[in-house]
Amino acid sequence: ASTETVVSSATVGDHPIGLALFGSSLYVANRNDNTASAVNTSDMTSTSIGMSLNGSGFPFRDAVSPDGAKLYVANGRSNSVSVIDAQTNEKLRDIAVGELPWGVVIR
User: What residues in the chain have per-residue pLDDT under 50?
Assistant: First the structure.
């Protein structure tokens, strides 16, 4: 029988649910505290990305642009997708979308 072993971990926000990987950056959507986290997988340090979603955003799934420049986070309860600068981890804007977006895919 095979066994699974935790080899490393990082502290992120409350109820991490969505993951997106680009290079050595792992982005995590933290559902319960309206944040995302950027984790450097080389040393497992974590940076919180404040989403400013007025307490009801519910970040759920995320995706990174093909060039790694932007992170997109679907906010299920605010009917928006947040656009994050992946270099600075600053939110650039929110894009209004249809009702209850629970995921995002970038091609």
Answer: none
